[in-house]
Design brief:
The chain is of the alpha/beta class. It folds into 2 domains: about 210 residues, 3-Layer(aba) Sandwich (Rossmann fold), CATH 3.40.50; about 90 residues, UDP-galactose 4-epimerase, domain 1. Strands 3-2-1-4-5-6-11 form a 7-stranded parallel beta sheet, with helices on both faces. Strands 7-10 form a two-stranded parallel ribbon. It has a two-stranded parallel ribbon with strand order 8-13. Helix 1 links the parallel strand 1 and strand 2. The longest helix is centred in the last third of the chain and has 28 residues. The N and C termini lie far apart (about 55 Å). Bound molecules: NADP nicotinamide-adenine-dinucleotide phosphate (NAP) and guanosine-5'-diphosphate-alpha-D-mannose. NADP nicotinamide-adenine-dinucleotide phosphate binds next to helix 1 and strand 5.
Length: about 325
């Protein structure tokens, strides 16, 4: 049985990747951080399933603690490592740049060093990002497009991208970068724009909220579906040679278009509810991202399955369930 170690297992991608690898018959180990409140909500359904119990293990650790990473590496002896852990919010990275770089850049280096000192044969996946293209020099972006990072987060990801290649070339590590464009799902963090919109729109529809405050509505992103994208991570590590791949849908849409889809699906006009709040603008913005995933299609045989419209609809449906429950609880509370 193959063993996979995942950093960031409690995040959106970590949860889908865990589901995917357990189905493939892997033993999965996930590194979680100590928190004063529960934060395993996205993987509880997997952890509590008796069928998975001998195959899913959670251990404490942190990308800022290299000593712990090295001992976990020798204790677990994984065949594959997926480095998904990160301070992943671009806007927040302007507020906490040092912490972001410590986790997203030096954290990767700590993990790579733990692998190197362990002297075991391991395959390594690095969660690189389309944010590295930043102020894009060409559209669409592919594996040869130069980077122009526009945030502390993106600069940290560029550092990790090159360290991953450096460990491949210097030490012969089977190490791959997946340059993933934005990918969303009902498990997306609630402060990212798509989820913020689906949460608010469904709550507005049920009378639980009046307004939605957003920043730049003209930004364009290449939005795919998270469950589709984690398959590409795994495929990269199953090849004969390590390499780097863009993973994207090839379509780009503005925040306004996402608002049209979601509010339109609920029979609402978003212009009546959305207000602009300058706090949500970034000091430097990435105006447009659109990927070209031809290399992944050709070598990995990977293609996205879920469309932009379908993502908007399935996220709205999932958040409507949450909003309906909220409404029931609120009504019960009012009767007491
Ligand atoms: P996410 O939902 O924000 O999850 C981030 C994960 O990293 C969480 O499990 C978090 O743990 C963990 N983490 C944060 N700081 C850590 C630290 N110091 N040590 C160990 N773990 C830490 O992110 P995601 O959307 O799943 O994205 C997964 C990865 O892909 C990230 O590296 C992200 O930058 C990258 N990426 C994402 C996208 C996208 O569109 N989603 C696109 C390209 C690249 P807690 O639960 O304890 O906070
Ligand atoms: N979060 C947020 N909140 N974004 C807003 C808002 C708002 O209220 N209003 C407008 N936006 C715009 C942002 O300015 C940005 O241009 C766009 O919506 C998308 O923002 P996010 O959903 O926060 O995602 P991101 O593109 O900055 O970053 C995500 O994708 C990257 C891949 O390109 C994250 O998942 C990163 O971790 C990931 O690397």
């Amino acid at each position: 049985m193959k063993k996979a170690l995942i950093t960031g297992i409690t995040g959106q991608d970590g949860s889908y990747l865990t589901e995917f690898l357990l189905k493939k018959g892997y033993e999965v180990w996930g590194i979680i951080r100590r928190s004063s409140s529960f934060h395993t909500g996205r993987i509880d359904h997997l952890y509590q399933d008796p069928h998975n119990q001998p195959k899913l293990h959670l251990v404490y650790g942190d990308l800022t603690d290299g000593t712990n990473l090295a001992s976990l590496m020798s204790e677990i002896a994984p065949d594959e490592i997926y480095n998904l852990g990160a301070q992943s919010h671009v806007r927040v990275s302007f507020d906490i740049p040092i912490y972001t770089v410590n986790t997203d850049a030096l954290g990767t280096l700590r993990l790579l060093e733990a692998i190197r000192s362990g002297k075991r044969k391991v395959k390594f996946y690095q969660a690189s990002s389309s944010e590295m293209f930043g102020k894009v020099v060409e559209t669409p972006q592919n594996e040869t497009t130069p980077f122009y990072p526009r945030s502390p987060y993106a600069c940290a990801k560029v550092y990790s991208f090159w360290q991953t290649i450096n460990y491949r070339e210097a030490y012969g590590l089977f190490a791959c970068n997946g340059i993933l464009f934005n990918h969303e799902s009902p498990r997306r963090g609630e402060t990212f724009v798509t989820r913020k919109i689906t949460r608010a729109a469904t709550r507005i529809k049920l009378g639980l909220q009046d307004k939605l405050y957003l920043g730049n509505l003209d930004a364009k992103r290449d939005w795919g579906f998270a469950a589709d994208f984690v398959e590409a991570m795994w495929l990269m590590l199953q090849q004969d040679k390590p390499d780097d791949f863009v993973i994207a849908t090839g379509q780009t849409h503005s925040v306004k278009e996402f608002l049209d889809e979601v509010f339109g699906y609920l029979g609402l006009d978003w212009k009546k509810y959305v207000e602009i709040d300058k706090r949500y603008f970034r000091p430097a913005e990435v105006d447009i991202l659109q990927g070209n995933a031809d290399k992944a299609a050709k070598i990995l045989g990977w293609k996205p399955k879920v469309t932009f419209k379908e993502i908007a609809k399935l996220m709205t449906d999932a958040d409507m369930d949450i909003a309906e429950n909220e409404k029931i609880i609120k009504e019960k509370g009012n009767k007491k």
